[in-house]
Design a protein that fits this description.
The protein contains 13 helices and two strands, in the order ααβαααααααααβαα. By secondary structure, the chain is mainly alpha-helical. It has a two-stranded antiparallel ribbon with strand order 1-2. The radius of gyration is 27 Å and the shape is elongated.
Length: about 260
C-alpha cells in the first residue's frame, strides 16, 4: 500500500503532543516601544560608563586622549538618559509596565525570601521582585546622577559645599550603578529566554508559566482550553487522514 504525497506530514502536524505544542506556543511580552526604551537606555548607559572610565582612570585616559571630547560625550549622553523613558511613556503598554514595576505585592516579598523562587510555585507577575528593584534603582540613579552631574558641570553657579557633595554622591553612586549593571547583565546571560523576549518581544509559554505564573496563567489556561477543545477534532482528523491513505493505497495497488 502507498501513501499520498504529504499525507504523513499532515498527520504528524495534526498529532503533535500537547507538550510539544506548548513548547512552541509564544506569549507577547514586550511591544516595540518597550524594547526600544530598554535598548536605548542600555546604549546610553554603556556610553556613559565607558566615558566615565576613560575620564577617571589615568592610564586609560592617557591611552585614549581627547579628554574634552570624551567629557562632552559623557555629559550629553548622561543628559539624554531620561529621554527614552519619557518618550516611552507616550506608549500605553510602557505606562502599564511602569505601573507594574512600581507596585509591590506580597508575592514579591515571598520571591525574595524563597530559595526555590524559579520553580513556578509562586504566582509572580510580569516582573519579579529582582526586576522591580533593578528598575527602581536604575531610574532613581539616573535622576540623581543627572542632578549631581549638572551641578558639577555648571560648578560656578553653586556653593562649594554643593559642588563637593555632588561630586561625592556622583562618584560613589557611579560605582553602585556599575555593580548593578554588571549584575543585570550576568542574570540576563543566565536566562536566554528572557533575552529572547527582550529581543523579539515574545516569550515561550512554558518559560512564562514557570517564571511569571501570575502573569502567564490566563494565557496558559486558554491554551489548555484550546487543547481540550481540539483533542477530539485532532483525533477525528488523524482518523480521516489514515482512511484517506488507506483508500489511496487500495486504488493504487494492482488488482
Amino acid at each position: 500500500m502507498t501513501s499520498m504525497p504529504g499525507s504523513a506530514d499532515r498527520t504528524d502536524a495534526m498529532t503533535k503532543s500537547p507538550p510539544e505544542r506548548a513548547r512552541r506556543e509564544q506569549l507577547l511580552r514586550f511591544v516595540p516601544a518597550q524594547r526600544w526604551v530598554h535598548r536605548s537606555t542600555g546604549i546610553l548607559m554603556g556610553v556613559v560608563m565607558v566615558t566615565a572610565a576613560i575620564l577617571y582612570l589615568g592610564p586609560l585616559s592617557i591611552a585614549v586622549g581627547h579628554r574634552a571630547l570624551v567629557a562632552n560625550i559623557h555629559i550629553y549622553c548622561g543628559i539624554a538618559l531620561p529621554v527614552p523613558f519619557l518618550l516611552g511613556y507616550l506608549d500605553k503598554a510602557f505606562r502599564a509596565d511602569v505601573k507594574l514595576l512600581s507596585r509591590w505585592l506580597p508575592v514579591d516579598r515571598q520571591w525574595l525570601r524563597s530559595p526555590d523562587r524559579r520553580n513556578g510555585r509562586l504566582k509572580v507577575g510580569k516582573f519579579n521582585a529582582g526586576q522591580k528593584l533593578n528598575a527602581s534603582f536604575i531610574w532613581g540613579a539616573i535622576l540623581v546622577m543627572l542632578g549631581t552631574g549638572l551641578v558639577m558641570r555648571f560648578a560656578n553657579h553653586w556653593p562649594v559645599k554643593w559642588r563637593t557633595g555632588a561630586t561625592f554622591v556622583h562618584d560613589w553612586l557611579a560605582y553602585a550603578v556599575v555593580a548593578v549593571v554588571i549584575g543585570h547583565i550576568w542574570m540576563a546571560m543566565r536566562d536566554p529566554q528572557a533575552r529572547k523576549a527582550m529581543r523579539t518581544g515574545f516569550a515561550p509559554l512554558l518559560w512564562a508559566i514557570r517564571e511569571h505564573r501570575g502573569w502567564a496563567q490566563p494565557e496558559y489556561d486558554a491554551f489548555l482550553a484550546r487543547e481540550r477543545a481540539n483533542a477530539g477534532a485532532e483525533k477525528a482528523a488523524a482518523a480521516l487522514l489514515a482512511q484517506d491513505d488507506s483508500d489511496a493505497g487500495a486504488h493504487s495497488d494492482p488488482a
